[in-house]
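Whiteboard transcription, Tuesday session. T.W. wrote the structure tokens on the left side:
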């Protein structure tokens, strides 16, 4: 069974028919929020950043939210293949032990231990990420406004309930409660920001750790990160709330093949705008924002052959509870099987058959 499906927007498909797909054609690599689902993309990441993209020289923008931010920051390290292997290992083996008298792990404990993991992972290597000669990193987070401006035991749930109702009426209305925040290692961002309330800040050594932690801070699972250096004061949460799958207005050059394509390794075909849009199926369709985008996604039928017939996900933390060994075994089997995704993409690049590409 084929593991990989390749989908392309209309302009990306026309590009492939005329030019094929070469590493110098890539201008942007997005990386979605989605927690453990992102583990399935490890082999593709290692192929792209270890073998394929190094064959070219153009600037590439790496844009990530939540686990996607962690993946893209890791890809900026000097030895990306080894670092991405370490990321996969550390994510699979993360474990939050119950304290005496606890029935569930509290957000304060998860935030504290996760922060220590980030510090241990990147340590003194932050400068490698920020000064990469080719890759420009953009980390997305969500900043609370008004009642969500500070995390509070009562106000925060009420604020997110209001955000849910507003978003159901109109995605831009979510901006009354939360705004997109982009921390960038370079001043230029590769997408338009007119679609949603947005703030832009420089990503620096002083704010790298809190920005990445904020991007990964799922409400009520982790605590918000407050008052990030170099950014507006307030509470910052997971970037996936405002931009779950980075359905952004991508800007790419239009007069030359180099840097034109947005190459998107993703764990599904649909590019869902925000976390609160997951149940709003009418917002899962493609749009002109994705016209230059190529999505590499697992075949849904292949996914059914994985352990438990699905991708790893956050529910597995509850399913396996404190049985770390069982969860590690299941997640490791899934990530091992995902090598087929990278192998099939490499084979497709070699033969370049445009008729194998499906519409996005």
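and on the right, the sequence the group agreed on:
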């Amino acid at each position: 069974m084929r593991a990989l499906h390749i989908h392309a927007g209309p302009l990306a498909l026309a590009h492939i028919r005329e030019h094929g797909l070469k590493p110098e054609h890539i201008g942007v690599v997005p990386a979605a929020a989605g927690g453990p689902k992102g583990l399935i993309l490890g082999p593709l990441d290692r192929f792209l950043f270890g073998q394929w993209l190094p064959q070219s020289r153009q600037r590439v923008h790496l844009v990530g939210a939540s686990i996607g931010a962690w993946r893209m920051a890791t890809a900026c390290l000097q030895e990306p293949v080894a670092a991405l292997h370490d990321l996969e290992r550390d994510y699979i083996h993360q474990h939050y032990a119950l304290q005496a008298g606890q029935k569930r792990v509290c957000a304060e404990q998860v935030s504290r231990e996760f922060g220590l993991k980030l510090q241990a992972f990147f340590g003194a290597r932050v400068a490698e990420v920020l000064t990469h000669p080719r890759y420009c990193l953009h980390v997305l987070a969500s900043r609370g406004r008004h009642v969500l401006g500070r995390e509070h035991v009562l106000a925060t749930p009420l604020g997110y309930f209001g955000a849910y109702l507003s978003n159901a009426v109109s995605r831009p209305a979510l901006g009354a409660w939360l705004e997109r925040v982009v921390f960038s290692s370079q001043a230029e961002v590769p997408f338009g920001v007119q679609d949603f309330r947005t703030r832009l800040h420089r990503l620096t050594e002083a704010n790298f750790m809190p920005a990445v932690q904020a991007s990964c801070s799922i409400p009520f699972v982790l605590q918000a990160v407050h008052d990030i250096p170099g950014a507006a004061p307030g509470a910052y949460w997971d970037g996936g709330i405002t931009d779950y799958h980075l359905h952004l207005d991508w800007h790419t050059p239009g007069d030359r093949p180099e840097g034109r394509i947005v190459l998107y390794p993703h764990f599904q075909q649909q590019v869902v705008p925000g976390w609160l849009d997951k149940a709003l199926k009418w917002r899962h369709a493609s749009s002109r924002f994705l016209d230059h985008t190529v999505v590499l996604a697992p075949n849904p039928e292949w996914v059914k052959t994985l352990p438990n017939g699905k991708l790893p996900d956050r529910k597995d933390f509850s399913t396996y509870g404190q049985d770390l060994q069982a969860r590690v075994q299941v997640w490791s089997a899934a990530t091992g099987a995902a090598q087929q995704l990278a192998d099939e993409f490499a084979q497709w690049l070699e033969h370049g058959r445009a008729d194998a590409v499906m519409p996005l």
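Someone added at the bottom: The radius of gyration is 19 Å.
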